[in-house]
Amino acid sequence: MGLSALTDRQQALLDHLASFVAKQGYAPSLQEIAHAFGFSSLQGVKDHLKALERKGYVRRRPGQRRAITLMGPPRPFANGIPILGRVPAGTPQLALEQYDERLTLDTATLGPGRHFALQVKGDSMIHAGIHDGDYVIVRQQDTAEPGAIVVALLGEDATVKYLRRRGRQVRLEAANPAYRPIPLHGHVPAPKILGRVVGLYRAFR
Amino acid sequence: MGLSALTDRQQALLDHLASFVAKQGYAPSLQEIAHAFGFSSLQGVKDHLKALERKGYVRRRPGQRRAITLMGPPRPFANGIPILGRVPAGTPQLALEQYDERLTLDTATLGPGRHFALQVKGDSMIHAGIHDGDYVIVRQQDTAEPGAIVVALLGEDATVKYLRRRGRQVRLEAANPAYRPIPLHGHVPAPKILGRVVGLYRAFR
DNA sequence: TGACTTACTGTATATAAATACAGTACCCTC
DNA sequence: GAGGGTACTGTATTTATATACAGTAAGTCA
Q1: Which of A49, A85, B175, B198 could pair covalently with B128 via S-S, beta carbons 3.0-4.6 A apart?
Q2: Architecture of the CATH domain B8-103
Q3: What are the distances in angstroms from CA A109 to CA A80, B16, B58, B137?
Q4: What is the CATH number of domain B115-201?
């Protein structure tokens, strides 16, 4: 089963919604919909939207203006990919209703600040689940709390390390014990923190 | 070149706009933008939007709620984050010229096909560097070559496993040897392949 | 016949959100 | 060292818009 059937008017309203969003980049207000259909009242629009929401074609945020999200197949995953919530047993195809959130790599997901990505070389952080070839997503900052995974510049090389406090010394440590820890101060060349690792991406070939 | 250059903050705001619209299907309100960036006032948002409008990146309808239209050619890397190539020695701040590529999670990066993401539960794939809480990005398909990491439906649970061939038997194997392999055929309940794992994302708190 | 759904009109109220004005701070550059 | 642009905070006001309640009318199902 997919989505339940729509009446002619509900379909017309859904079509109008889709074309409005495609054209303007934002959803119409209730009065704009009413005007487009020649309604003199808003209640008709509300009723139709309520039906569309009940049948799973749109989702609304109560009280918010123009907060209508179109659901359903014709929405490409242009930006971000849907996160599958529960997996219904024996479902032949994955129902759209299951998608609630979306996974993206942008400032909205990552929070404020400048970000960059860096491809990891070597296996010094393999015990932290960071493998050779992985991309770490880094929020640019020049300090970090102990315990954080940071990207530090050591001479000419950018390295991914834990920032750890040992007594009164703060140092960079690899997750792999085969690598020597590096004190943050009093080391030549002086390490410089480029940012904190906030995400990781790996592509499987 | 057509559109004039943007400041970092203006670019960040434009990226946020693009991803919000892509995710929600409608534009954000000024307060939502302010909240996303941690502003306590709306004037900053207004100023930035004004700059973006003056430079031709967006168009607004005065007085209307959420009436922000993104202009210009659809920028494919609107939501990506830059990948830092070489790290120049001793550079005080990271120069923009160093960024050559961008990391995105969209169909352009992932290739053709439908994709979804799934949050991994448990440590059955920890030896493959897939940890509890990681998101795997899955290309939807119902078969896969042996050697691939797949997401399979086992009864009501979606599990991440290697697809391996042993002799003439094809079976699902965990990377963690503590878990039993499951033959693809002749097992109850019958495993069903949902797709192949093509990527992995992890967020660090 | 009556209950139920769809498809609206009409009026009133509440509020989310845009606008406006005043001010601070930090660059630039001329 | 004055002037302009960027990047905000803080408070107040207005309004576009969502919501609520009370109806009417036609079709359909049982």
Answers
A1: B175
A2: Orthogonal Bundle (1.10)
A3: 10, 9, 22, 16
A4: 2.10.109.10
